[in-house]
């Protein structure tokens, strides 16, 4: 029996049941890094795509899966303030988060406020950081504008609803199930419509008093993008965040001309690399909103690490309303 920390490891791309839980010690942190003893990890749809080899970026094998976690700093590398040791933090990266011990660049780690639990923190930085960057820097959402959120029952969708309301927008949520629409309304949406409705565009317009919308958050792609773009008004903005619907949309570009509208890409990973100071300011703003009680990630279920296959399947199914977490260490006796 080994005492080495465990990690969900991808040795060959495949479905969740083909991934391995094996010993993995990342070693001491390098210069500019921190080592985190992980308590909770948050699972996203993209994590499973990466493990299957179906994401647009493919890491070199083998690698530790996972993009987001929370825990305590247990060591720091050269150039990192040692006062961080012992602090409660959340961390994020493209891969590497689903381990009991992980090393992250210090710039990808944020100290937690007292108001935030490890559970909330494990699903906060990526989804809320993405939604805030999308709406503030990329979408320039203004108070009084109407925000349409596609995939409103998912991680980005719920974050966008809560942030949109905090920024003073009228928020319309589009989701595919009764449970997800109920979640969207409970997290602040002003209206919720059926994403599968045959007269979907008419439902969007009706939810906005007969008017087109100003901004669309689109983490879905596929067949959802074009009707959403057509629902924009003059100077509207559609924010391309992902393709959870399984396909990359093809959009008639004359629509942008006719509406004076913009198709805007949102890549929070590159944003953090190119504008780290702005990203840090965004996180401070998000923590302040959380402390005010305006942002609350909905947690659907917390699985023990041993049940990682079931947890990954649940997160990938698209059927769960709320976030799926992994408890990386046993509860203390």
Automatic annotation (TrEMBL):
The stretch of residues making up the signal peptide is none
InterPro entries in alphabetical order: ADH-like_C, ADH-like_N, ER, GroES-like_sf, NAD(P)-bd_dom_sf, Zn-ADH-like_protein
Q: What is its EC number?
A: 1.6.5.5
Q: Which SUPFAM superfamilies match?
A: GroES-like, NAD(P)-binding Rossmann-fold domains
The alphabetical list of record keywords is: Oxidoreductase
Q: Which parts of the sequence belong to the Enoyl reductase (ER) domain?
A: 14-326
What name does UniProt use for this protein?
Answer: NADPH2:quinone reductase
What organism, scientifically named, is this protein from?
Answer: Sphingobium jiangsuense
